[in-house]
Amino acid sequence: MAPTKKGEAARETKRKRGSVNSQKPEPAVKEVKPVEKEVKSLKEEDLLLDSGTDSDYDGDSLSGSLNSDDFDSDIFDSEDDGSQRDTEDGERESLGDKDHGHEGSVGNDDNGDESEQVDSEDGMEDGSDEGSEQGEVAEESDSSEDEVAPRNTVGNVPLKWYENEKHIGYDINGMKITKKELRDKLDSFLASMDDKKNWRQILDEYNDEEVEVTKEEQMLIRRLLKGEAPHADFDPYPTYVDWFKWDDAIHPLSSAPEPKRRFLPSKWEAKIVLKYVRAIRKGLIKFDKPEEEPKVYDLWGDSTSDQKNKHLTYIPPPKLKMPGHEESYNPSLEYIPTEEEKASYELMYEEDRPKFIPKRFTSLRSIPAYGNALNELFDRCLDLYLCPRVRKKRINIDPESLKPKLPSRKDLRPYPNSCYLEYKGHTGKVTTISTECSGQWIASGSTDGSVRIWEVETGRCVKTWQFDEAVKRVAWNPHSDFSILAVAMGRDLVILNTELGTDEQQENIKELLQLGNVPEPKASVAAIASWLPDEKNGGIIIRHFKNISSIDWHRKGDYLSTVMASGETRGVVIHQISKKLTQKPFKIRGLPVTALFHPSRSYFFIATRKNVRVYNLLKVEEPVKKLETGMREISSMAIHPGGDNLIVGSKEGKMCWFDMDLSSKPYKTLKNHPKDITNVAYHRSYPLFASSSEDSTAYVFHGKVYNDLNENPLIVPLEILRGHSTSSNGGGVLDCKFHPRQPWLFTAGADSIIKLYCH
Amino acid sequence: MNVEGEDTSKKIQAKFVTKLDSPFKAPATPYVISSNVTRLGLSSVVNSLLKLHHHEPFDFLIDGELIRMSLEQFLLAKGISAERILEIEYIRAVTPRKEEKPSLHDDWVSAVDGSSPRFILTGCYDGLGRIWSSAGSCTHILEGHAGAISSVAFANSQDAESVTVATASKDRTLRLFKVDTAESLDTTTRLGAYKILRGHKAAVQSVVAQKSGSMVCSSSWDCTINLWDTTEADSEGVTATVKRRKGNNQKEETQSEGEAQTTFVGHTQCVSSVVWPEDDVIYSASWDHSVRRWDVPTGKDTLNLFCGKALNTVDVGGEGSALVAAGGSDPILRVWDPRKPGTSAPVFQFSSHASWISACKWHKSSWFHLLSASYDGKIMLWDLRTAWPLSVIDTHKDKVLSADWWKGDSVVSGGADSKLRISSGISIS
């Protein structure tokens, strides 16, 4: 609306100018009538010509004056005019009533010849009815003046083009509008003198009309001359209404005007753009080239390559042989088999017969339908149906990488690896060995009934005892002050004095082994074991009711446990040497195999054929824990000196490592030996453990137990110790024990030799 | 030109020099010899030059290194030019030329001492010490121990009339004997100890005497090293005199008992061997894998060499009597130089044995020679200038338990075959 308003204001000024020109003869007002009549007649013509365009004179005159005066005015460019006209056309009808009203009033003016009266009335009205009239004008001003289309339709062209023509232009129907004849000066002067309203008339050159300035327009001009607003109802000082509610606002809103920088182009963006432009010019930024469509489609090419990438499990179809000349519908004669050849095909097996026999057809039209189509379709369906849905993936993995990352053997030194010393003297299988706690001597027992003590350092046999039965177990007392030896053979457990300690210790031992006042045992225990003096060797014999299979000393050297495998529920008893007392605290379920004291706490481990039960010696009724080995038959057991880890060897060659803090299931199961494991052993101070087997080997492992409970024990196989003879008649290594202080391993062989493996 | 001769071997000009005396002095003129000759070839060359009656084996040194391969290989390996005239020094080969007949014992010979030029002292598993004047002639038998003797030592062999002998036994005691050398050498005299040293709680492994003085030092399975006084305890009130009935000749003798003067504690396992090279320094080897040097006046260990293996024997000698040789539970004889700062790696390692090393001894006068005895039944003579053994004495049928030099040119050794073997005629210049 802004341009139209501007235009309006400009028109206003034009009109004012016009009025200013014609204001001087203001007193002579009354000689306007004839002109008015002409106008009226003209107007009637107009009405006749075009009933639709019952235009308002004011509007006409105004627009006419404007158009004629200000062709080169930059406010009224052609576009503006057009739009103006459009709006005028649109609103013309709605404003028709008002126009008529004007006409009516004009008519009144004309009819009643009381122009003066009217004038006076007008003048009166100027004073009294100004407000109401002005209100009307203000109401209609926007539309009425602008809507009326000019009579002439030549448009915005210089009027001098029509100077020498008889017409001034064309009306809306294309008819020429003829020029009025110019009145000579005298006539016009006389007319002006006659018509007192003549001073109000202005010539509209564009429409070639005389236009009379209405009263309202006069008022408007007057206001403009005074420097007031053109519209009467415009209030230059309206009372300010503060629409904004300041009180309830949470956030302060800035009423600051928008800064200038919002309207300025950003320098920073310009810099970025410049940078991109430079980069593009230098070739640093490259745009994707539009994809090139392959010009030729490779009909026989490998179309599967792109599909391979799309689908993980794409199975490519088998490649077909490319068709040759023989498959043409009209092959050369040399491809056509002769009748004999065809007959020979018939004789062949169906599999050997050629799948395709070339035929000749004179034209494409004569080619029959493919005979095998149905069969092949069926085969294809069968293929699809029988095609394996699951695709087996073969994974290429280096088997080396699947091995667990173990530290190098070199870093785990020292460990026993080579045999330098042999202890020879036994004549039967050496079934058992035991090391003295200082590591100076070892004791061994053999099937020849002899128990020997050897000097570790030189391999010399220091002492020998000869018994009648094969020795099953020997065990050196772990207490360093009591160098006594427990020997199990048959049903007897013999406590031997080795006479290796100092004189003082000797006396203590002799006192200990005095069987003076044996307390009367309970009846239940008496049936199991009886204490007898050993006159021959100066020791004690504890005679059991069944054959002894295993013995173990308590760490303090006073208690000694014996296991009788066939003793069933009474199979495990504990002897107290100092009090010569036998106890049977345990109720065993199953056949006991071996038993162990905990190295530091009051626990006791009993291995039956399949499981290991842990008893608290202070509360022996029920086992504290049951360790499930999952093995067929346990043969041996050893406990880590820390007391939390246990290894169990079985007769099928398996060895289980139990971490008792971890679970009752084995932490690791090592399957190394092809034959029975005869014994397992831990080293007292080095992180080593070993297993001996009837396959004449002993395995040495690194078994490090960490103090940190979060860290699992590290088990690394280190060495296979061979050396014992592998004779077919029951060879093997029957026992293995670590040297208590050196990383050395003693192995007792069925070849009657004890070997010492050093690091 | 003989084309074939050139093909087979190159010729090297060599000059033989020696420090030996007149019968072995070769003319110092250069000779042309084939480059593929070994020590044997060179030895025969020198023998032919000297025109000796008996064939004498020689050993050859080039730039202080013994030749143990063909001359060509040796020159290549050492980067010595074969263009100029080689100077080859020859010495008499260190090898026993004579094997004495074995001296029989009743049991394993566990200890032998040859530090006295007049006698050989042996200890035996039957608990008797024996003194031999020569092979087969036992002059004295030292009685008294209840257990096997593990070590013997001459405490004071300089004395003309009598010699003091210390024996250590597995019965946890040491005994001191005074042997009268003026007695006739034809008959065997049985002797009792004049002093019994008690104090060890476990078997005594080794005994050694101070060179000049009246002290012996012993080491034991109880992880300690004890120092004892050897003087007859007349003045000492602490010793008790016990009367002891001699089983043999019913003679009553007085024996005094001694207690340890000083105890060195520090080893954590059996101290298997001690040596006392100087008056105030004792070296000890232990099964706890270490060799320690003890300062006698203060009783503190001033050096701790870690070996990694349990050690059975240690000896000090060689250049400046400072090199420590030790052997133990593996077949490698190691030599350390404790004067080298900041390193505990052995400077020499000799690994020709097949089993544990039971004894090693430096030659008393030579800086280069030492012997080692092993459970594989062999005694090897070593020269620091080559990694090969100079000679191997393989006379024992079983483990060699001890060995020593005797009179500078013989090796005496005792083993599990109950024999004392003497290999003599070793010429060490």
Automatic annotation (TrEMBL), chain A:
GO terms (BP aspect): maturation of 5.8S rRNA from tricistronic rRNA transcript (SSU-rRNA, 5.8S rRNA, LSU-rRNA); maturation of LSU-rRNA from tricistronic rRNA transcript (SSU-rRNA, 5.8S rRNA, LSU-rRNA)
Region of interest: Disordered: 1-152
Gene Ontology molecular function terms on file: ribonucleoprotein complex binding
Biased segments, Acidic residues type: 69-81, 110-147
Biased composition range(s): Basic and acidic residues: 1-12, 27-46, 82-103
Keywords: Nucleus, Repeat, Ribosome biogenesis, rRNA processing, WD repeat
One CC-aspect GO term: nucleoplasm
Chief location of this protein within or outside the cell: nucleus
Pfam family, one: BOP1NT
InterPro entries: BOP1/Erb1 (IPR028598), BOP1_N_dom (IPR012953), WD40/YVTN_repeat-like_dom_sf (IPR015943), WD40_repeat_CS (IPR019775), WD40_repeat_dom_sf (IPR036322), WD40_rpt (IPR001680)
PROSITE patterns reported in the protein's UniProt record: WD_REPEATS_1, WD_REPEATS_2, WD_REPEATS_REGION
Domain BOP1 N-terminal: 162-416
Presence of the UniProt keyword DNA repair in the record: no
Cell compartment(s), UniProt: Nucleus, Nucleolus; Nucleus, Nucleoplasm
WD repeat extents: 423-464
Function, as annotated: Required for maturation of ribosomal RNAs and formation of the large ribosomal subunit.
Family: Belongs to the WD repeat BOP1/ERB1 family.
HAMAP family, alphabetized: BOP1 (MF_03027)
Protein name: Ribosome biogenesis protein BOP1 homolog
Source species of the chain: Thlaspi arvense
Automatic annotation (TrEMBL), chain B:
Region Disordered, residue ranges: 238-260
Alphabetic keyword roster: Nucleus, Repeat, Ribosome biogenesis, rRNA processing, WD repeat
Chief subcellular location: nucleus
Gene Ontology molecular-function annotations: ribonucleoprotein complex binding
GO biological process: maturation of 5.8S rRNA from tricistronic rRNA transcript (SSU-rRNA, 5.8S rRNA, LSU-rRNA); maturation of LSU-rRNA from tricistronic rRNA transcript (SSU-rRNA, 5.8S rRNA, LSU-rRNA)
Chain positions of WD repeats: 142-187, 197-238, 264-304, 350-392
Subcellular location: Nucleus, Nucleolus; Nucleus, Nucleoplasm
Any Pfam family matching the protein: NLE
Every NLE domain range: 12-75
Keyword Repeat: yes
Single GO cellular component term: nucleolus
HAMAP family named in the record: WDR12 (MF_03029)
Function of the protein: Required for maturation of ribosomal RNAs and formation of the large ribosomal subunit.
Family: Belongs to the WD repeat WDR12/YTM1 family.
Protein name per the record: Ribosome biogenesis protein WDR12 homolog
Protein species of origin: Thlaspi arvense (Field penny-cress)
